[in-house]
DNA sequence: GTAGCCGCTCCCAGATTGGA
DNA sequence: TCCAATCTGGGAGCGGCTAC
């Protein structure tokens, strides 16, 4: 035995506290991923008084079936003050936390080597259980408590960074989804009147001429908002009513453009925090200087009194709001809405309805013969439903193909950003390829005809949600092509898809980059775990 | 009351079959 | 040849029975 290695049994003790008074209702199960999970047990008619209580920083483990699972399920309770678990699980705690840090112990349990040791010692029955005494005899290096805290802190930095990246990605994903809904479900998309020509720099990040010309063709729409069209020379002082009833004052030489910028949170700090509702007043001036002078005046006490008086004269804010030609924004109804029989609702003029398969092109996958080793373990990622994760992107796959394997199956090599939808087993999960990949027949691959994959991905997310929502009472055991064929979607004009795709591409670039970063962080996390075996006593380190 | 063992249910995915 | 349906087997997480 190395000098700083000690049996686990020297540091832990069993705890057997039952839920006799039924005070605790948080019921958890134990997963082989070494986490507590919501219990999946059918507890109808079960006597919950027999269930064991596990408290914060206590552990629960399963010593049954260790050989079968090649893992020992063990977890430390962190997210709850207390919970109950099945009486089948031993609950234990660290005797003296000044000698052994519970998180350090959990790190030791997280090592692959620990599971290998547990599997090796598991005996009895076809599934192989681990003797409790054997578990207690397993040894771990126990450096000073200061050193343990240092190791735990280093490990937590990596773990927290991974968590932070996951949270940031979740925010970006939510923002992309909200923007999609805003444009293509609520129809609050950027829209300009037919005689509109922007003056000055439009903050839309539109750089290529093709897109500009598409924007110019945008609308044969008649604007109901009634703002004056700019000639490029005239300057305006304007008042924007915001959703908190505050009034923003500014100047511009293009009211439509400026309102759009405010509306899309690209205008001013105030309108970023308080969403603009409507331009309620404007005045025209021949020069910028004259407009700026009037703006300054409106921002004084005199100006505020003048504005209040005008609002009173108009009958008050409520009357002004009720009289808005557009309920939420002057941009919203800039486009003419037309009734669509197929969809049984109004959609913007110029948009059309079509099958999901018109909006996105579909292809299938395939699996080469698994008995042929020449087909497997190459450099080509092979996506299956198992590779779906919580994030948008899938970067790595559990299985890989060789060139020969790819050539001998129905799967193609799908390019980066191809959308994968799982169709069997796990039904309706969506991933986007972070790199070139092949795919098995449990999934479908989708590409947007104009290669606007980020727009396509958002469309797929919403459509699959709808498909699953429509299946009330029925359960999808599988998704087949006719499900996609029969699903109607609204197809917006190309310029708008392109504009949207460009707007959210930075989100996707950032999400993908963080996914790659997390892969490296996971490797570092595993490295820290494997280094634990080399932790030496301070004396030995000298 | 407890330890150990076996089996149930749900879920998942690869392979095979059969029809268009 | 492609695609959908079906068959088959394994993983996961318990529940419950039996012997002691």
TrEMBL record:
Keyword list, A-Z: DNA-binding, Restriction system
Stored InterPro entries: GIY-YIG_endonuc, GIY-YIG_endonuc_sf, Restrct_endonuc_typeI_TRD, Restrct_endonuc_typeI_TRD_sf, Type-I_RS_S_subunit
Any Pfam family matching the protein: Methylase_S
Keyword Thylakoid: no
GO molecular function list: DNA binding
UniProt-listed GO biological process terms: DNA restriction-modification system
Residue ranges occupied by any GIY-YIG domain in the UniProt entry: 233-308
Protein family according to the UniProt entry: Belongs to the type-I restriction system S methylase family.
PANTHER family, per database record: TYPE I RESTRICTION ENZYME MJAVIII SPECIFICITY SUBUNIT, TYPE-1 RESTRICTION ENZYME ECOKI SPECIFICITY PROTEIN
Protein name: Type I restriction enzyme, S subunit
Source organism per UniProt: Salegentibacter echinorum
